[in-house]
Amino acid sequence: MSDHEKPASPDEEKMEEGPRNDNSAAEQPDGAEAELMVGMSVEEYDQLQEQLERAREEAQKNLDGWQRALADYNNLRRRTELERTQMKHEVLGGLVRPFLDVLDDLDLAVRNRPASGSDNGWGEGIELVYRKLLSSLENQGIVQIEALGKEFDPRFHEAIMQEESDEYDSGTVMDVIKPGYMAGERVIRPAIVRVAA
User: CA–CA separation, 148 vs 156, rounded Å?
Assistant: First the structure.
């Protein structure tokens, strides 16, 4: 060995030998070390799985409860809206009912006005007032019940007479004595009619 050559240190000797591929027991972790490397034991893992399952069940229960509460709220909202609309129509019907007699008188005047003569302008004025009042009621949701030529329906019509008719089938409204009115689905006053026998 020359002066320039030094004896190899034990670390250098290992490096020269290269990596060792033996699977000796000293380098392989035992069961306890494997658990530490993973960070938990099998028992802890099982407990976490159980907790996760319980949390999922709890989350599903909460979701089901929330969905039921949402459905209940939507049903309540719809029911409240329906009740509000019905109340509005009921109040509106009560306010309008006294004016229906005036509307009937105007309707009668329009139907029986003279065809011509000096009062023709007056008759047109009465008809204009009648149409304006009818239009104002329609804007508030009050509509006339269709009756003439319709099948008699006791929910919407009140028959005061039944007569034989060649023009109309039996059970059909053949004449409207007084028109009926509705507010939404609520009948304020049924139509007074004559029905074909």
Answer: 12
Identify the burial level of 107 via C-beta atoms within 10 angstroms of its C-beta, where 0-12 means exposed, 13-18 middle and 19 or more buried: buried
Give just the sign of the alpha carbon dihedral 167, 170, 175, 181: negative
User: From first to last of its 197 residues, what are the pLDDT tens digits of the chain?
Assistant: 444 555 555 555 544 544 454 444 445 445 554 454 456 788 888 899 999 999 999 999 999 999 999 999 999 999 999 999 888 888 888 888 888 988 888 888 888 877 666 556 777 888 888 889 989 899 988 999 999 999 999 999 999 999 998 899 999 999 999 999 999 888 999 999 999 98
Going through 13-148 in order, the beta strands assigned E by DSSP cover 142-144
d(C-alpha 6, C-alpha 111), whole Å = 135
